[in-house]
């Protein structure tokens, strides 16, 4: 006879529906920024685990406002507190980085903004039970899981879910906008064309890696008229990755969905806390966690490279006029996307490989960046932020390029120099 669950299936579904889209006027913005940690003198030299552990200890002693964490491969992540304006968000994270970067440099370490490690194969340095279980789970789908865990970095922008009622700022509209605009953002900010010093054939290798993982937890939920229902069903039908334990391994039985765990209560009845933890192991391109977490943007190069994707995304989601324009711009992209969920549909595949050399994505990006630039003054963005967005637009978007193209140009130029050198000998 099945063990009685700690909470019922209906109670857990109601809990999910209550926490996934917390509606109200969009007024908060947040960002989560990841970097690859490297040796300051030689980025191609892997950083030993002991040096990373010392860095963790030193950085956690700093008086930061952002949450500081390290990912399984040693990537550093700063997660801002929800801010009431774009300016407040940028200023808070910039102040934290002004402490983190010198502290890292004092230890001989630097931070690199790449969507995928261009130098080294994936190597896990954290051995927490969560990551042991995650690695074992993703190994069922091949090597992509280890690359995702240990060799990728991103800029994740968090925006409010939106209003309850329909309209440009309604949560249903914003949910659809995120999945269409997400392909444009992935293409415009593609910054991971190289792995182990070789081109991969994609401009955002990071996005390709995500598309190769367990589809039940990394694809977008099926489209439908009610995002809350779709998300609740998606969560409960996703396989359980980790069964947390006070001691021993956290591995879960293969193929056990959370819904089946509720109904059988085996190996123990799940709790609401188990469900909340389960949600943290789901990685679709847009994750509703009260707010909308946009997860498709590669990490960006430069000390302030993260500011441009944050500013553009905030403008297109939180300025009503820009939001309406962006929705009209990207709505035709649904035909290219088709019925398959992101990131495995044709639209997202074009974004990963071609980025803004794809004519449809280029046209959409030019129009969306123009809408964002017009909205930024209305959001109170500083002249410096507006200038950074304008410079990125002129350098990349207007020309049908993305940051990945710079890396490819440099790589091919270096290979050409080596060929010339050999020919002259």
Give a structural overview.
By secondary structure, the chain is of the alpha+beta class. It is built from 18 helices and 9 strands. It has helices spanning 9-20, 49-59, 86-106, 129-138, 144-151, 171-188, 205-211, 215-218, 227-237, 258-264, 272-279, 307-318, 320-330, 333-337, 346-353, 359-375, 383-395, 403-424; strands spanning 29-39, 67-70, 76-79, 109-112, 154-160, 194-195, 198-199, 286-289, 291-298. Strands 1, 2, 3, 4, 5, 8 and 9 form a 7-stranded antiparallel beta sheet that branches. Strands 6-7 form a two-stranded antiparallel sheet. The longest helix has 22 residues, at 403-424. The radius of gyration is 21 Å and the shape is globular.
Q: Topology of this structure?
A:
Layout (H helix, E strand, L loop, with lengths): L8 H12 L8 E11 L9 H11 L7 E4 L5 E4 L6 H21 L2 E4 L16 H10 L5 H8 L2 E7 L10 H18 L5 E2 L2 E2 L5 H7 L3 H4 L8 H11 L20 H7 L7 H8 L6 E4 L1 E8 L8 H12 L1 H11 L2 H5 L8 H8 L5 H17 L7 H13 L7 H22 L1
Antiparallel strand pairs: 1-3, 1-4, 1-5, 2-3, 5-9, 6-7, 8-9
Helix pairs in contact: 1-9, 4-5, 6-15, 6-16, 12-13, 12-16, 12-17, 13-16
User: Nearest-angstrom radius of gyration?
Assistant: 21 Å
Helix percentage range: 40-55%
Order of helices and strands: HEHEEHEHHEHEEHHHHHEEHHHHHHH
Low-confidence parts, pLDDT < 50 over ≥5 residues?
none
Estimate the global geometry from the Cα principal axes.
globular
What kind of sheet is the major sheet?
7 strands, antiparallel
| Cα separation of the termini | 80 Å
Structural class: alpha+beta
Beta content comes to 5-15%
> Tally of extended strands?
9
How much is the average pLDDT?
94
User: How many H/I helices?
Assistant: 18
């Amino acid at each position: 006879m099945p063990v009685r669950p700690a909470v019922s299936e209906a109670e857990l579904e109601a809990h999910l529906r209550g926490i996934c889209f917390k509606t109200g006027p969009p007024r908060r913005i947040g960002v989560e920024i990841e970097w690859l940690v490297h040796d300051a003198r030689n980025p191609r030299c892997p950083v030993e685990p002991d040096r990373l552990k010392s860095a963790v200890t030193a950085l956690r002693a700093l008086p930061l406002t952002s949450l500081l964490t390290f990912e399984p491969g040693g990537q550093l992540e700063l997660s801002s507190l929800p801010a009431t304006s774009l300016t407040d968000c940028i200023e808070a994270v910039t102040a934290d980085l002004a402490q983190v970067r010198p502290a890292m440099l004092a230890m001989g370490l630097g931070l690199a903004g790449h969507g995928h490690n261009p130098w080294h194969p994936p190597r896990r340095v954290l051995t927490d039970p969560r990551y042991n279980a995650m690695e074992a789970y993703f190994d069922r789908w091949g090597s992509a899981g280890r690359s995702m865990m240990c060799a990728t970095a991103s800029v994740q922008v968090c925006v409010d879910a939106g209003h309850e009622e329909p309209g440009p700022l309604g949560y249903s509209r914003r949910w659809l906008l995120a999945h269409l605009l997400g392909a444009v953002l992935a293409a415009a900010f593609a910054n991971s064309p190289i792995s182990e010093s070789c081109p991969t054939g994609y401009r955002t290798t990071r996005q390709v890696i995500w598309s190769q993982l367990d589809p039940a937890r990394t694809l977008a939920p099926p489209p439908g008229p009610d995002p809350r229902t779709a998300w609740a069903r998606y969560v409960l039908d996703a396989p359980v990755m980790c069964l947390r334990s006070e001691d021993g391994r956290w591995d879960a039985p293969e193929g056990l969905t959370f819904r089946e765990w509720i109904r059988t209560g085996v190996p123990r009845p799940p709790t609401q806390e188990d469900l909340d933890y389960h949600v943290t192991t789901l990685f679709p391109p847009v994750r509703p966690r009260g707010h909308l977490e946009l997860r498709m943007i590669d990490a960006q190069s430069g000390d302030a490279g993260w500011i441009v994707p944050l500013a553009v995304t905030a403008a297109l989601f939180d300025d009503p006029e820009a939001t309406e324009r962006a929705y009209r711009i990207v709505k035709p992209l649904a035909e290219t996307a088709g019925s398959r969920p992101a990131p495995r549909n044709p639209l997202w595949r074009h974004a990963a490989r071609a980025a803004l050399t794809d004519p449809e994505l280029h046209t959409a990006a030019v129009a969306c960046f123009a809408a964002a630039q017009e909205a930024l003054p209305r959001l109170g963005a500083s002249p410096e932020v507006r200038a950074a967005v304008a410079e990125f637009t002129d350098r990349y978007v207007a020309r049908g390029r993305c940051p990945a193209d710079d890396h490819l140009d440099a790589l091919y130029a270096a290979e050409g120099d080596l060929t010339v050198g050999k020919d002259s000998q």
